[in-house]
Amino acid sequence: SQQGEEDPQALSIQEGENATMNCSYKTSINNLQWYRQNSGRGLVHLILIRSNEREKHSGRLRVTLDTSKKSSSLLITASRAADTASYFCATDASGTYKYIFGTGTRLKVLA
Amino acid sequence: NAGVMQNPRHLVRRRGQEARLRCSPMKGHSHVYWYRQLPEEGLKFMVYLQKENIIDESGMPKERFSAEFPKEGPSILRIQQVVRGDSAAYFCASSLEGTGLSGNTIYFGEGSWLTVV
Fold it and tell me: Most distant CA pair in chain B: distance in Å?
């Protein structure tokens, strides 16, 4: 079953703009992770946020988590062409040990 | 994630042949996960293994697919009698401990792209 759903499915922005992607999930979780995937490549881990955390930062990345709404957002500030990729959220439902992935947001940053 | 090694990167098989995909987890990791990704889709969980044990194979098709993680050597995902629908990217991931409250990150390999012709 689909645990995470990203929104929007596709996003196209100009270099320098901010990109916001959202993830909604269905059941309570322990952790939520965001990954980036370049075309034809594996997944690169970006940020892990625990269910008792509300916000985390890593460089130009900012992740928020709202467990009451079962949603998370990933903000990329001052985007670059190199940020062009698909971004996935993954959640581990409480009591399990496997991460379930959403269908991803395809981000295109135009130079 | 460069520490998770998968091979082969690309594999072409004819219908009915067998495909064997290998995964060496990051050093020190004893938990391995296999995911499948169809074009333009997210990753679908297949199986979770610890050394010599299958913990959860709920995402793996009941027939033709099997996985192992022996005491020595890499984890193997085996697909027998492949069909065109098996064409996909297969990703292996590993973690230091199982995920859960500890919030262990899982690290992915570069994937094995299987094409069935």
Answer: 43
- Sign, CA dihedral A72-A76-A81-A82, equals negative
Contacts of A16 (CB under 8 A, 6+ apart): A78, A79
Tokens 């050093």 map to which residue?
B27
Give the separation between CA A35 and CA A86, rounded to whole angstroms: 8
Q: Across A42-51, A87-96, B13-22, B23-32, which has the greatest mean pLDDT?
A: B13-22
Sign of CA dihedral B22, B26, B29, B32: negative
Give chain B positions within 8 Å (CB) of A41: 110-111
Q: Do residue A99 and residue B91 have CB atoms under 8 angstroms apart?
A: no
Output phi, psi for B88, to 5 deg: -175, 175
The CA distances from residue B4 to A43, A69, B16, in Å, are 11, 34, 29
* pLDDT at A2 (0 to 100): 47
pLDDT in tens, A60-110: 999 999 999 999 999 999 999 999 999 999 988 766 777 888 889 999 999
Distance between CA atoms of residues B61 and A63, nearest Å: 34
Compute the nearest-CA separation of B83 from chain A (Å): 22
DSSP 8-state secondary structure symbol assigned to residue A78: S
pLDDT digits (tens, 9 = 90+) for A24-61: 998 888 889 999 999 989 999 999 999 999 999 999 99
User: What pLDDT score was predicted for residue A6?
Assistant: 84
Distance CA A59, CA A14 (A): 19
Contact A30 B101 (CB under 8 A): yes
